[in-house]
Amino acid sequence: MKEINLLTLALQNLRRKPYRTIVIGLCVAVATGSLFAATIVLRGVQHSLTVGRARLGADLVIVPDGYETLAQEAFITGQPSTFYMSDVAEKKISTLSGVNQTSPQVFVETLSNASCCIGEFFLVGFDPETDFTISPWLTTHLDGKALGPFDIIVGDRILLREGETVIFYGTDFSVVGVLEKTGMGIDRTIYVPMEGLRSMIANSETLAEQTLEISPNDLSSIMVSVKPDAEILDVAELIEANLDGVNVFTATQLNQAVGNQLQGVLGITFGVTASLWLMSLFTIGLVFSLIVNERQRELGILRAMGAKRKVIFQLVMGEAGLLTGLGGLSGLVAAGVLLTGFSRLIQLRLRIPYLLPNVFEIMGISLLLLLLALFTGALASLHPALSSSKMEPYAAIRKGE
Amino acid sequence: MMSRNNGNDAAAKPVIRLDNISKHYQQGSETVRAVDDVTLQVLPGDFASITGRSGSGKTTLLSLIGGLTTPSRGEVEIFGEAMSSLNDDALSFLRANRIGFVFQFASLIPTLTAQDNVRLPGMFGEKPVSPKDAADLLAWVGLSDKLHNFPAELSGGQQTRVALARALTNHPSLLLADEPTGNLDVETESEILTLLRNLNRERGMTIVLVTHNPELAQHGTRHLVMQSGKLTENIIVNKEVLIRE
Lengths: 401, 245
Description:
The structure holds 2 protein chains of 2 kinds. Chain A is an alpha+beta fold. Chain A has 13 helices and 11 strands. Chain B has a 6-stranded mixed beta sheet with strand order 6-7-8-3-9-10. A 4-stranded antiparallel beta sheet of chain B has the order 2-1-4-5. Chain B is globular and about 50 Å long. Chain B has helices spanning 58-65, 88-97, 114-119, 131-140, 156-168, 186-203, 214-217, 239-244; strands spanning 16-27, 30-42, 47-52, 73-78, 81-82, 99-102, 174-178, 206-210, 222-227, 230-236.
């Protein structure tokens, strides 16, 4: 037996003017969806930075002067960048006071027709002897086995898994480990032992379609760990003072770079969302005043049938709640689908690290925003609901005639 | 007040008792005396018709009786209880369970079928109304084939019948009808009137009918005439019925 209750009545009322219902619902959906997307992106970036910073391992990163922005982008998004400096720099840095350990890296860009992946990917040569940034994360994957020169480690977003082989520039490599997801460039990076990378570079002339013009003495970056008793910024200044043609950046600066990228975009998003929210609030308030006004006679007749004041109040509030609740839910679902489907595009367009927060956090944010949508509906319809419930039935019937 | 019977029959306790009630309101700088010092009793089983010109205060009087508005002065007593002593919840309970209303324009909920419109008062009454009960009521008003029709698919007369069935949903003992046939043709008007008469004669329901048509008033037991807010006539027109009941 179909029940006749406040919910069915409120639903039927919303169905009366489908166009109006859809427009208001859409308004709420856009506001909720935008706020959800902006919050998730912000939380995703924060989460990713936390994971990525821990994974980066180095206190300082040294790159050739003029390439700091490109290098930061490569770390953040995994977009390949190639730049080189002489290995003399590493030797000098290792002698400076406050420097605990150094490890070089060499960056190579894969060809767009690499067998593993579509598009260009970032190959990073690292020295397993001195490395302290990748190796700590590799050991867990290698189960104590030594890393061979042609054993590679891949980021989570590389479509290769342990045991698979791949050819880069004519050289065969075997995948021996996959790194956990970080949302940063690491996920799209392929880590190759320096010996294997140098061999690949040397053989590219004969084995590959394209020769790699990288000298055996070239390095792309130097990862530096600072002694526990030394100040990171002091060591950075010391390096810049003693070496020409290099730039030093810290993990904090990497965060700042991300912050700068985000500030504008998120500022605009939150601004637009706040405007949309206010607009929704006023629109819902106005529309519900109109709804109550045009249905005065009907509400008066419900009172004549015995509906208490609180029933009329609940009916109007229920309609607003349903409308904003359904609108909010649609916005959340749409934003969720878009965020999941276009996460890589968002990462590239905004040039930010981005790792989806865990499912409980997403559910918590969704619930909060849904409550916010419902609260907006309640706030906007409070006055019309109160005034219609307080109206004398006779006056309501006569005014509505 | 011209009256052949002022309603002070001692035999039965009145269903409605109005004691010098007035309803005044401001319209700009002018005070409108919609109902002015009316005293009246309606007894159980009465079929009272109120006639009068437009603006004479008929509908306001009916609304005062039904507790849809409060008097500016005087006391309304219904089923032996002073309305001024009832709070909104108690009044709503009374309207939900003991009074049925029919208005000039049926005012059905357009998105509900005839059957669901009839079930609607069950939301406010003591118990929900089953689809079968609603169907029985619609059959009684001659609309057993229109259960699932929406108001827009019904004629004016059919909508009034649905409104009448809706007013009877919670088995009220008092029916207040405000020009239910006002916009209907003569034939449909007569059919509605027959239904009202049956309710009064067969079920003993007390009915107060507001109508602009003095001829209809002849079918009831009591004819009240209003003029400029005052009750100018209170006539027993069918004493046989009263004696029988």
